[in-house]
Amino acid sequence: MSINVQQLRAVGRVSDPETQELLNRLAAVRASRRPLCLTAGEFDDILRWKLKSQYGRQEVRRQANTPDVIEAVTGAAFSIAHPDFDYEMELRVGILCALRGVAVPVASAILALVFPEDYGVIDFRVWRQVFGQESSSFAISDYKRYLSAIRPLAQELDWTVQEVDLAIWELDRQMQR
Q1: Residue closest to 22 by CA, chosen among 54, 55, 44, 53
Q2: How far apart are CA 19 and CA 154, in angstroms?
Q3: For the residues 20-45, what does the mean pLDDT come to?
Q4: Which of 143, 144, 146 is nearest to 132 (CA)?
Q5: What are the pLDDT digits (tens) for 45-59?
């Protein structure tokens, strides 16, 4: 692994107002909505956050995701509970990928924002820092490998997995300048 705790401590917890606002809103949803699911608006907010300038690329394809479908699929994914974290993650990601326009990176963003203590967002920046390799396409097995690498860092730092993930992303951004 290319990244270590000292590097992450040097970056520190990244304070991004947009991310924090979304995390706060989704934490409130998680605390109050039973069964837990995303509305179409919340789903769209996560897509805008994750995809940024690429948001429009699959917009027409994503229109098939009606509000009822989004609530049903995200509700099914979030209701999965299993003692084997890796299996639970595989199921959740697989279910979320049933939505049009959602592949592993977007599914990881949904999980990271709804369950920040357990999940991070996989993308080319974090992959490059953690594994020292370039990649822009990710499968569930890659996500499993990524989470297995960063969860011990989160535990050692006493940060959420999402906080570690965001610090790694910021470290890569700084290194690429």
Answers
A1: 44
A2: 18
A3: 97
A4: 146
A5: 999 999 988 877 888
CA nearest to 74, candidates 53, 117, 48, 44: 44
What is the sign, positive or negative, of the torsion defined by CA atoms of 102, 109, 81, 156? positive
CA distance 40 to 70: 6
CA dist 156 and 154 (Å) reads 6
What's the pLDDT score for residue 88?
98
Whole-model pTM above 0.85?
A: yes
pLDDT of residue 2 exceeding 90? no
Please tell me the predicted confidence (pLDDT) of residue 70. 98
- Two tokens, residue 127: 């992959």
What percentage of the chain carries pLDDT values higher than 90? Answer: 88
Choose among 152, 163, 23: nearest CA to 85: 152
**44 membership: H or E segment, kind and range:** helix 40-51
Question: Whose CA is closest to 5, among 128, 174, 159?
Answer: 159
Tokens of residue 135, six digits: 């990649």
